[in-house]
Design brief:
Elements lengths: L9 E5 L4 H12 L3 E6 L6 E3 L5 H11 L4 E4 L28 H29 L2 E6 L2 H5 L6 H21 L4 E8 L5 H5 L8 H5 L8 H12 L10 E4 L8
Parallel strand pairs: 1-2, 1-4, 2-3, 4-5, 5-6, 6-7
Helix pairs in contact: 1-8, 2-3, 3-5
């Protein structure tokens, strides 16, 4: 049964070339939402943009117009670049002393600055329309820390939670909800290629739901937050992790 309030709306989804972003694009399109998909990685029907660059964000907005839904998925523990748009994930843990200033700056930019720039560009248009849904992407790494993805990624995703709460306060009077999703272990193709867990791992068996998450598990929550069903949810960070961690 279709969710109310989605059909005929327009969405901008960043980080849409693969994994969770691609699943969100598919789900919203199945709900009859017009979706503009953007990523630094080229792909079919993809609007290519480097969202760490304010000029690229401005050019993107000229093409997109005013979306009803803004879904900021772009990011990851390894920062992409124009030259390497889908870098491989590290197979081992990344310790504090192994993170140099360049890595720190690039991962913060890829995960936090992108969301800031995109929100700054599109929020005024949503305010003028008196309607909007913004969904940002945090991580379980920001909720409980992580000894795998590194301090730079966890810190960036913690920043997303702060950004989300502040924008919810600022934009709520204009009819705009702002929420974040903190995924747990979601088995995307890139995650699988990096060897980050499989169905026989003790880690998977320790999850209360006894399975890894799927990108569609995240896409369904995004669709709900954008729909009428999510219209009174704002400032929240929703943990989608199979019961791995219960946030305060």
């Amino acid at each position: 049964m279709p969710l109310e309030g989605l059909k005929g709306r327009k969405a901008l989804v960043t980080g849409a070339a693969s994994g969770i972003g691609a699943a969100i694009v598919d789900r919203l399109r199945r709900e009859a939402v017009e979706v503009i998909a953007t990523d630094i990685h080229p792909g079919y029907a993809m609007t290519v943009a480097d969202l760490t660059d304010a000029d690229d964000v401005e050019k993107l907005s000229a093409k997109v117009g005013t979306p009803d839904f803004l879904v900021n998925v772009a990011g990851g523990p390894v920062a992409p670049s124009r030259e390497q748009t889908q870098p491989a994930l590290p197979r081992g843990s990344l310790k504090l002393e192994e993170v140099d200033e360049t890595q720190w700056s690039r991962v913060i930019a890829a995960n936090l600055t992108t969301a800031f720039l995109v929100c700054r560009e599109f929020a005024p248009r949503m305010k003028a329309r008196k309607f909007g849904r913004i969904v940002n992407f945090a991580s379980i790494a920001a909720r409980r820390g992580s000894d795998r993805v590194g301090v730079h990624y966890a810190a960036a995703k913690g920043g997303i939670i702060g950004l989300t709460k502040t924008l919810a306060l600022e934009l709520g009077p204009h009819g705009i909800t702002v929420n974040a999703i903190a995924p747990g272990f979601i088995r995307t193709p890139r995650i699988a290629a990096a060897g980050w867990g499989n169905a026989t791992d003790a880690f998977i068996q320790a999850l209360p739901l006894k399975r890894a998450g799927k990108p569609d598990d995240i896409a369904g929550v995004v669709a709900m937050l954008c729909s009428e069903a999510g219209g009174y949810v704002s400032g929240a960070t929703i943990d989608v992790n199979g019961g791995w961690y219960f946030a305060p």
